[in-house]
Amino acid sequence: MASLVPCPHCGSRPKEEFTIKGAALARPAPDADPDSWFHYVYLRENPRGAYEEYWHHTAGCRRWLIVCRDTVTHQVNTSQDAAAAKGQAA
Amino acid sequence: MPDLRALPALADRTPLVSHGIRLSPLPEGTVLQMIVGPDAPDQTANVERLANESGLAARPLSPGQWLLIGDKPTRRADMKHLLAALEPQASGIDQSHGRVRMRLEGPMAVKVLAKGTAVDLNQRAFPPGRSVATLIGHIAAHLTRHDVEDFEIAVLRGLAEACWIDLAGMCEEFV
């Protein structure tokens, strides 16, 4: 697991300051079919390589981030504010 | 009516003083948290102006959030005005009861803090005047660097004593 995470707001911080939610997936529409929701809630890829996750900087800026890390090398490639990534005001 | 008296969280703590380090409680004056709405334009200038007008220091907490901090308590009427001053763009929350501040200063201050936090304390990365939110040990803290060897630490009230004890332990080798 990556131990230093580059927070776009706070700079490089240790993983202890963060809470990991899990894979950053696109949420289906509320009225999407049960299969899409089942997939969204229960099924996960387990990729070897780049993986995007939601991380919350709980003990820092308290922003949700999208952290892209490599599951093989543990290297964090990118991190960005989740709200900004969605095109909302940060 | 029971006799309720406000007691400072660190009331029974005497400053820890040596030639290398000094840890002291700060007065529980005013702590006001300002939060900007998700769609509001940047309020940095407005928050800083409001802080200046009211004799408080505006310290960034996270994007769109500040702590307005002062050593003296704010009167109820003034506080009411402050909380509503930037509505509807930003809202204020009185946290004077909720955050407790302490000061760590001296030539060994950086060495002491480095035992508890992973923030880069190098002057170039964390220059005087800057504030960061981080962990000190397991306690979430708001750290402000006033000068090269002068830090202010604000923690939630319930954790103030634990944070003090942790810091005192970190200071031990220099006392």
TrEMBL record, chain A:
InterPro entries reported for this sequence: SoxD, SoxD_sf
Q: Pfam families from the xrefs?
A: SoxD (PF04267)
Listed name of the protein: Sarcosine oxidase subunit delta
* Originating organism: Shinella lacus
From TrEMBL, chain B:
Q: Pfam families given for it?
A: SoxG
Q: Report the superkingdom from the record.
A: Bacteria
Q: Which InterPro entries match?
A: SoxG (IPR007375), TrmE/GcvT-like (IPR027266)
| Coiled-coil stretches | none
Q: What is this protein called?
A: Sarcosine oxidase subunit gamma
